[in-house]
Amino acid sequence: MKMYITILLVLMSIISLSIGIGDIDNDVFLHSRVPRLVALLLSGAGLALAGTIMQQLSRNRFSSPSIMGVNDCTMLG
With contact defined as beta carbons under 8 Å apart, do 16 and 37 qualify? Predict the structure, then answer.
């Protein structure tokens, strides 16, 4: 199952990079699109890891930031 998800992620990343390519310069591609894709992948992985850590610390499979009050604390800050 994990292999299918990894293949799907790579395939969707390639599709995301290739959408809208016409007469695009390599500099625009390498300095704009690729870093944006890497930032999205890293932020998604970071959120998944943070959710997993929160669930393990509270020993509750259904815990999420909204249930644990993290959203309210960030709004207060």
Answer: yes
CB 36 within 8 A of CB 17: no
Q: Rounded to two decimals, what is the model's pTM?
A: 0.65
1 falls in which pLDDT band (50, 70, 90)? Answer: confident
Per the CB < 8 A criterion, the answer to whether 38 and 22 are in contact is no
Tokens 């199952």 label which residue? 1
Report d(CA 75, CA 23) in Å as an integer: 44
Please list the alpha-helical segments (H only) found in the chain: 2-18, 26-28, 34-58, 65-68, 70-76
The SS3 call for residue 23 is: coil
Which of 33, 13, 37 is closest to 25 using CA atoms?
33
**Contact at 8 Å (CB) between 55 and 61?**
yes
